[in-house]
Amino acid sequence: MSDTKDVTGKGQNAPLKSDDSANDAPRRPNFSTPLTKKDDIQDEGAKPAVAEKAQPASEGAAKGPAGPGPGAKAALTPAQRRQQRQQRRAILEGAEEEDTDEAMVQRQVNRRRQKAIAAATRPAPAQQGPVRKPASRARLSRRHIFLAGSFCIAVLFPVIVSAWYLYARAADQYASYVGFSVRSESGATSTELLGGLTSLVGGSSGTTTDSDVLYKFIQSHDLVEKVDARLNLREIWSKAPNDPIFGFNGGNALEDLRSEWSSKVRIYYDNGMIDLRVLAFNAQDAQAIGQAVMDESTILINQLNDVAREDGLRYARDELERAGERVKEARQALTAFRNRHQLVDPTADVQGQVGVVSTLQSQLAEQLVQLGLLRANAQPNDPRIEQSELRIQVIREQIAAERLKFGSETGEALSEIVGQYEGLAVDREFAEQSYVAARATYDNARAEAARQSRYLAAYVKPTLAQEPEFPQRGKLLFIITGFLMVIWIVGILIFYSLRDRR
């Protein structure tokens, strides 16, 4: 009963006053004592609900007899009191049911409110130094106008004009690619096709390669003139009349056509391999130019190959002819010597004469021995001694006669004849050996010339483009923009540097 009296005695005005004051004036949270879940629910969720639903009860109670204090309690009948208690009980039960969702929301609101209160009550930090005034709004100056104007004139306007020309006036160009190298039958890359020519001028055969010669030939006026005679390059490169930059607008001079050739035909040379990129306003024209270049290069290689082969054979042939002449002269000299001395082989004749003299000398020695024996054993008037002396005399005369055939008693004239003969024989033998060597060299030169024939091997035949690749508009526009930007920046820096020095 005491509980009910307390509730009914102050339920008309006190709860409403406390709720209004709690809502109007924010309370300072007490962080010293932690709040439990139940207290949190009663504090934050139940009180507003009780305050809101307690108003009808208070209004119903107000209909009774007026009067403050205990007089108001006595004016209520028991039935009214029971009704108030039931209403309050219902309000409390409804508040507990609604606390599950509303309490959580209310707790979050209260926490945010507490944080705001704590931030508001926190003392402000002391200001350090004077407070600066806010910057004023930037205004355009003459320097800004000059920079913007110079940028538009030097960069923006040329870039716009370049973009308009590239995308509106520049004609599409098709590219044809060709790749080839000079090869030999052995499979190795040719390095000395002009060996014969370089040897004639005293140079080394390995100083100039076939690919070097071909690389220079493709850039020469001779090739431009030959290709123009076959395809009419002026007409091919003049098919874009609205494109004066990338089209051909030159005259009939070969130098103008040669300059256009340098821009339309790019040559890439690396390690004996030559790559070409040919541009034209039509895919078929680009392919035809590439094929013409390849055909003319093949003709040049064949011509140089024939010249080199003929030079090598000519040298071997000349050497063979000179060796033959030397053999002929040596044989004629030996024949004249034999006819003059009536000797086929003086060496053999000398050997025969020497043999006869040796035999006679042996016989002479025997007769001298016999004569000595006869004189020792026989009488001085013995006829055998006389015969032996006569025989010795005859043998000596014969030996003298045989020695006369040598030209003199000492044989000096015959030795000179034999010396001359031996010299002529050596000359003939050397000439014959030289002729044999020259003949072998000539045969080898012919075989080498046939084996080392060069030819043009194409590893990339002239291609037919399916779509245009040039001009590369985006790349060109980027390069133009970057170049103009650099020029403009450098010019501005120079201008302001000179102005600041004044």
TrEMBL record:
Q: Which chain positions lie within coiled-coil regions?
A: 313-340, 385-448
Question: What stretches pass through the bilayer?
Answer: 145-167, 476-498
Q: Which domain of life is it from?
A: Bacteria
Family matches, as InterPro entries: Bact_polysacc_biosynth/exp
Bias class Low complexity marks the residues at 56-81
Recorded GO cellular component terms are: plasma membrane
GO MF terms listed in the record are: protein tyrosine kinase activity
- Name the keywords, alphabetized: Coiled coil, Membrane, Transmembrane, Transmembrane helix
Q: Region Disordered: list its residue ranges.
A: 1-105
Basic and acidic residues: compositionally biased ranges: 36-46
Renumbered to this chain, the signal peptide range is none
Q: What is this protein called?
A: Capsule biosynthesis protein
